[in-house]
Design a protein that fits this description.
The protein is an all-alpha fold. It is 76% helix and 0% strand. It has 14 helices and no strands. It has helices spanning 2-21, 26-47, 58-85, 88-95, 98-109, 118-136, 146-170, 175-188, 191-196, 202-208, 220-248, 250-255, 260-272, 278-294. Helix 7 crosses helix 11 and helix 8 (175-188) packs across helix 11. The chain is globular.
Protein backbone atom coordinates (compact mmCIF):
# COMPACT_ATOMS: atom_id res chain seq x y z
CA UNK A 1 0.00 0.00 0.00
CA UNK A 2 2.87 2.37 0.75
CA UNK A 3 4.26 1.79 -2.74
CA UNK A 4 0.84 2.32 -4.34
CA UNK A 5 0.38 5.66 -2.54
CA UNK A 6 3.86 6.90 -3.42
CA UNK A 7 3.41 5.77 -7.03
CA UNK A 8 0.19 7.79 -7.32
CA UNK A 9 1.72 10.82 -5.61
CA UNK A 10 4.71 10.58 -7.95
CA UNK A 11 2.37 10.81 -10.94
CA UNK A 12 0.39 13.83 -9.75
CA UNK A 13 2.89 16.28 -11.27
CA UNK A 14 1.32 15.58 -14.69
CA UNK A 15 -2.20 16.43 -13.55
CA UNK A 16 -1.09 19.42 -11.47
CA UNK A 17 0.93 20.82 -14.38
CA UNK A 18 -2.08 20.55 -16.69
CA UNK A 19 -4.23 22.41 -14.17
CA UNK A 20 -1.59 25.12 -13.81
CA UNK A 21 -1.54 25.49 -17.59
CA UNK A 22 -5.33 25.90 -17.47
CA UNK A 23 -4.93 29.00 -15.32
CA UNK A 24 -5.44 27.66 -11.80
CA UNK A 25 -3.02 28.66 -9.06
CA UNK A 26 -1.36 26.18 -6.67
CA UNK A 27 -3.61 27.37 -3.80
CA UNK A 28 -6.74 26.94 -5.91
CA UNK A 29 -5.71 23.41 -6.91
CA UNK A 30 -5.04 22.51 -3.29
CA UNK A 31 -8.38 23.98 -2.16
CA UNK A 32 -10.47 22.25 -4.83
CA UNK A 33 -8.87 18.84 -4.33
CA UNK A 34 -9.31 19.04 -0.56
CA UNK A 35 -12.96 20.16 -0.92
CA UNK A 36 -13.69 17.16 -3.14
CA UNK A 37 -11.96 14.78 -0.71
CA UNK A 38 -13.69 16.28 2.35
CA UNK A 39 -17.19 16.13 0.85
CA UNK A 40 -16.77 12.49 -0.15
CA UNK A 41 -15.44 11.47 3.26
CA UNK A 42 -18.18 13.42 5.01
CA UNK A 43 -20.84 11.70 2.89
CA UNK A 44 -19.34 8.30 3.68
CA UNK A 45 -19.34 8.93 7.43
CA UNK A 46 -22.91 10.25 7.38
CA UNK A 47 -24.14 7.24 5.42
CA UNK A 48 -22.42 4.80 7.77
CA UNK A 49 -23.47 6.75 10.90
CA UNK A 50 -19.85 7.23 11.96
CA UNK A 51 -19.79 11.00 11.81
CA UNK A 52 -18.33 12.87 14.76
CA UNK A 53 -17.68 16.59 14.62
CA UNK A 54 -15.04 17.00 17.32
CA UNK A 55 -12.45 14.93 19.13
CA UNK A 56 -12.79 13.93 22.79
CA UNK A 57 -10.59 16.75 24.14
CA UNK A 58 -9.34 20.18 23.14
CA UNK A 59 -5.76 18.86 23.09
CA UNK A 60 -6.72 16.26 20.51
CA UNK A 61 -8.54 18.95 18.52
CA UNK A 62 -5.35 21.02 18.47
CA UNK A 63 -3.55 17.88 17.31
CA UNK A 64 -5.95 17.70 14.34
CA UNK A 65 -5.29 21.37 13.59
CA UNK A 66 -1.58 20.58 13.51
CA UNK A 67 -2.21 17.70 11.12
CA UNK A 68 -4.26 19.94 8.84
CA UNK A 69 -1.49 22.54 8.80
CA UNK A 70 1.51 20.26 8.35
CA UNK A 71 -0.09 17.74 6.00
CA UNK A 72 -2.35 20.21 4.23
CA UNK A 73 -2.25 23.97 3.75
CA UNK A 74 1.23 24.81 5.04
CA UNK A 75 2.91 21.88 3.29
CA UNK A 76 1.32 22.45 -0.12
CA UNK A 77 1.71 26.24 -0.06
CA UNK A 78 5.37 26.02 1.00
CA UNK A 79 6.21 23.37 -1.61
CA UNK A 80 4.46 25.19 -4.47
CA UNK A 81 5.83 28.59 -3.45
CA UNK A 82 9.35 27.15 -3.37
CA UNK A 83 9.04 26.38 -7.08
CA UNK A 84 8.64 30.10 -7.76
CA UNK A 85 12.03 30.98 -6.25
CA UNK A 86 14.24 27.95 -6.80
CA UNK A 87 14.69 25.12 -9.29
CA UNK A 88 12.62 21.96 -9.44
CA UNK A 89 15.78 19.98 -8.66
CA UNK A 90 16.43 21.88 -5.46
CA UNK A 91 12.80 21.55 -4.39
CA UNK A 92 12.66 17.81 -5.10
CA UNK A 93 15.98 17.18 -3.39
CA UNK A 94 15.01 19.04 -0.23
CA UNK A 95 11.38 17.90 0.03
CA UNK A 96 12.17 14.25 -0.67
CA UNK A 97 14.70 14.21 2.17
CA UNK A 98 11.84 14.48 4.71
CA UNK A 99 12.24 10.82 5.85
CA UNK A 100 15.56 11.78 7.43
CA UNK A 101 13.97 14.60 9.41
CA UNK A 102 11.04 12.37 10.36
CA UNK A 103 13.46 9.73 11.61
CA UNK A 104 15.34 12.27 13.75
CA UNK A 105 12.12 13.74 15.19
CA UNK A 106 10.68 10.33 16.04
CA UNK A 107 13.98 9.16 17.51
CA UNK A 108 13.98 12.28 19.69
CA UNK A 109 10.35 12.10 20.81
CA UNK A 110 9.93 8.31 21.01
CA UNK A 111 13.43 7.17 21.87
CA UNK A 112 12.09 4.72 24.48
CA UNK A 113 8.87 3.39 22.88
CA UNK A 114 10.03 3.38 19.23
CA UNK A 115 13.83 3.60 19.10
CA UNK A 116 15.55 3.88 15.72
CA UNK A 117 18.14 1.15 15.25
CA UNK A 118 21.53 1.69 13.63
CA UNK A 119 20.43 -0.45 10.70
CA UNK A 120 17.37 1.72 10.12
CA UNK A 121 19.42 4.92 10.35
CA UNK A 122 22.06 3.60 7.92
CA UNK A 123 19.39 2.34 5.52
CA UNK A 124 17.63 5.70 5.53
CA UNK A 125 20.91 7.52 4.81
CA UNK A 126 21.72 5.18 1.90
CA UNK A 127 18.20 5.59 0.47
CA UNK A 128 18.50 9.38 0.83
CA UNK A 129 21.81 9.32 -1.05
CA UNK A 130 20.23 7.18 -3.77
CA UNK A 131 17.35 9.66 -4.03
CA UNK A 132 19.88 12.49 -4.47
CA UNK A 133 21.62 10.55 -7.29
CA UNK A 134 18.27 10.08 -9.06
CA UNK A 135 17.20 13.72 -8.68
CA UNK A 136 20.55 15.25 -9.65
CA UNK A 137 20.94 12.82 -12.58
CA UNK A 138 24.65 13.46 -12.97
CA UNK A 139 24.36 17.25 -12.85
CA UNK A 140 25.93 18.07 -9.50
CA UNK A 141 25.33 21.80 -9.69
CA UNK A 142 22.75 23.28 -7.33
CA UNK A 143 21.51 26.82 -7.81
CA UNK A 144 21.24 28.22 -4.33
CA UNK A 145 18.23 30.42 -3.64
CA UNK A 146 17.89 31.16 0.08
CA UNK A 147 14.15 31.97 0.02
CA UNK A 148 13.17 29.11 -2.29
CA UNK A 149 15.35 26.57 -0.51
CA UNK A 150 14.02 27.74 2.86
CA UNK A 151 10.44 27.26 1.66
CA UNK A 152 11.28 23.78 0.37
CA UNK A 153 12.90 22.95 3.69
CA UNK A 154 9.75 24.22 5.41
CA UNK A 155 7.64 21.82 3.35
CA UNK A 156 10.05 19.01 4.17
CA UNK A 157 9.82 19.77 7.88
CA UNK A 158 6.01 19.98 7.66
CA UNK A 159 5.74 16.44 6.33
CA UNK A 160 8.14 15.14 8.95
CA UNK A 161 6.05 16.75 11.72
CA UNK A 162 2.88 15.38 10.09
CA UNK A 163 4.30 11.86 10.35
CA UNK A 164 5.17 12.46 13.99
CA UNK A 165 1.72 13.83 14.87
CA UNK A 166 -0.03 11.07 12.96
CA UNK A 167 1.56 8.49 15.23
CA UNK A 168 -0.18 10.02 18.25
CA UNK A 169 -3.52 10.54 16.48
CA UNK A 170 -3.66 6.97 15.12
CA UNK A 171 -3.54 5.57 18.64
CA UNK A 172 -6.90 7.19 19.54
CA UNK A 173 -8.97 7.73 16.40
CA UNK A 174 -9.94 5.92 13.22
CA UNK A 175 -8.15 6.54 9.94
CA UNK A 176 -11.31 7.91 8.29
CA UNK A 177 -11.98 10.38 11.10
CA UNK A 178 -8.37 11.64 11.15
CA UNK A 179 -8.23 12.04 7.38
CA UNK A 180 -11.47 14.03 7.28
CA UNK A 181 -10.19 16.32 10.03
CA UNK A 182 -6.94 16.82 8.08
CA UNK A 183 -8.94 17.98 5.05
CA UNK A 184 -11.21 20.19 7.18
CA UNK A 185 -8.40 22.00 8.98
CA UNK A 186 -6.32 22.11 5.82
CA UNK A 187 -9.12 24.11 4.20
CA UNK A 188 -9.70 26.32 7.23
CA UNK A 189 -6.03 27.18 7.65
CA UNK A 190 -5.66 28.21 3.99
CA UNK A 191 -8.23 31.01 4.46
CA UNK A 192 -5.61 33.58 5.60
CA UNK A 193 -3.83 33.05 2.29
CA UNK A 194 -6.99 34.00 0.38
CA UNK A 195 -7.49 37.04 2.61
CA UNK A 196 -4.04 38.23 1.52
CA UNK A 197 -4.71 37.25 -2.12
CA UNK A 198 -8.40 37.99 -2.77
CA UNK A 199 -7.97 37.87 -6.55
CA UNK A 200 -7.62 34.07 -6.35
CA UNK A 201 -11.11 33.64 -4.88
CA UNK A 202 -12.93 34.50 -8.14
CA UNK A 203 -12.44 31.12 -9.90
CA UNK A 204 -13.68 29.33 -6.78
CA UNK A 205 -16.76 31.57 -6.71
CA UNK A 206 -17.49 30.73 -10.33
CA UNK A 207 -17.56 27.08 -9.31
CA UNK A 208 -20.00 27.67 -6.46
CA UNK A 209 -22.35 29.67 -8.72
CA UNK A 210 -21.98 27.22 -11.63
CA UNK A 211 -20.79 30.02 -13.91
CA UNK A 212 -19.89 27.74 -16.80
CA UNK A 213 -19.51 30.56 -19.29
CA UNK A 214 -16.65 32.33 -17.51
CA UNK A 215 -14.98 29.40 -15.76
CA UNK A 216 -12.36 26.99 -17.08
CA UNK A 217 -13.22 24.57 -14.26
CA UNK A 218 -16.01 22.96 -16.28
CA UNK A 219 -13.92 21.74 -19.20
CA UNK A 220 -13.63 17.96 -19.36
CA UNK A 221 -9.85 17.84 -18.95
CA UNK A 222 -9.84 20.17 -15.93
CA UNK A 223 -12.68 18.28 -14.24
CA UNK A 224 -10.93 14.94 -14.82
CA UNK A 225 -7.65 16.21 -13.39
CA UNK A 226 -9.38 17.72 -10.34
CA UNK A 227 -11.35 14.53 -9.71
CA UNK A 228 -8.18 12.46 -9.93
CA UNK A 229 -6.35 14.74 -7.50
CA UNK A 230 -9.34 15.01 -5.16
CA UNK A 231 -10.65 11.45 -5.15
CA UNK A 232 -7.54 9.36 -5.77
CA UNK A 233 -4.49 11.44 -4.82
CA UNK A 234 -6.15 13.10 -1.82
CA UNK A 235 -8.99 11.08 -0.33
CA UNK A 236 -7.88 7.52 -1.11
CA UNK A 237 -4.14 8.16 -0.78
CA UNK A 238 -4.40 10.06 2.51
CA UNK A 239 -6.62 7.29 3.92
CA UNK A 240 -4.14 4.64 2.84
CA UNK A 241 -1.10 6.63 3.97
CA UNK A 242 -2.50 7.23 7.45
CA UNK A 243 -3.31 3.52 7.66
CA UNK A 244 0.20 2.62 6.45
CA UNK A 245 1.79 4.77 9.17
CA UNK A 246 -0.22 2.83 11.77
CA UNK A 247 0.90 -0.51 10.33
CA UNK A 248 4.56 0.13 9.47
CA UNK A 249 5.45 2.86 11.91
CA UNK A 250 6.28 6.43 11.00
CA UNK A 251 9.98 5.83 10.23
CA UNK A 252 9.53 2.92 7.81
CA UNK A 253 6.42 4.41 6.18
CA UNK A 254 8.00 7.82 5.57
CA UNK A 255 11.07 6.20 3.99
CA UNK A 256 8.85 5.24 1.06
CA UNK A 257 8.85 8.92 0.05
CA UNK A 258 12.30 8.20 -1.42
CA UNK A 259 10.52 6.41 -4.26
CA UNK A 260 8.82 9.62 -5.42
CA UNK A 261 11.60 10.70 -7.85
CA UNK A 262 11.76 7.20 -9.32
CA UNK A 263 8.05 7.20 -10.13
CA UNK A 264 8.28 10.73 -11.51
CA UNK A 265 11.10 9.80 -13.88
CA UNK A 266 9.29 6.63 -15.01
CA UNK A 267 6.22 8.72 -15.85
CA UNK A 268 8.44 11.22 -17.67
CA UNK A 269 9.88 8.33 -19.70
CA UNK A 270 6.41 7.02 -20.51
CA UNK A 271 4.62 10.30 -21.24
CA UNK A 272 7.42 12.66 -22.24
CA UNK A 273 9.84 10.14 -23.81
CA UNK A 274 12.69 11.26 -21.57
CA UNK A 275 15.72 8.98 -21.45
CA UNK A 276 16.58 6.85 -18.41
CA UNK A 277 20.24 7.31 -17.54
CA UNK A 278 22.76 5.19 -15.63
CA UNK A 279 22.44 7.58 -12.69
CA UNK A 280 18.76 6.69 -12.44
CA UNK A 281 19.59 2.97 -12.31
CA UNK A 282 22.36 3.45 -9.73
CA UNK A 283 20.18 5.66 -7.57
CA UNK A 284 17.30 3.19 -7.77
CA UNK A 285 19.53 0.34 -6.57
CA UNK A 286 20.73 2.48 -3.65
CA UNK A 287 17.15 3.40 -2.72
CA UNK A 288 16.06 -0.26 -2.81
CA UNK A 289 19.05 -1.33 -0.73
CA UNK A 290 18.49 1.46 1.77
CA UNK A 291 14.77 0.67 2.01
CA UNK A 292 15.56 -2.99 2.70
CA UNK A 293 17.95 -2.02 5.48
CA UNK A 294 15.57 0.57 6.93
CA UNK A 295 12.79 -2.02 7.10
CA UNK A 296 14.91 -4.20 9.37
CA UNK A 297 14.60 -3.60 13.11
CA UNK A 298 18.08 -4.88 13.99
Amino acid sequence: MAFVVVAIWGSTFVFTKMLLQSGLSPAQIFTLRFIIAYVLLLAYELCTHRFSLFTSSWRDELLMVGLGLTGGSLYFLAENAAMLYTTATNTSLIVCSCPLFAMFLIALCYRHSEPVSRMQALGSLIACFGMAVVVLNGHFVLHLSPLGDLLAFGACLCWAVYSLLMKSAAEKYSTTFITRKVFAYGLLTVIPYYICNPEEVAPLCSLSTLDTQHSTLFTSSVLFNLLFLGVVASMLCFLLWNWVIGKLGAVVATNWVYFNPIITILFARWLLREQITAYFLIGTVLILAGMYMADRRT
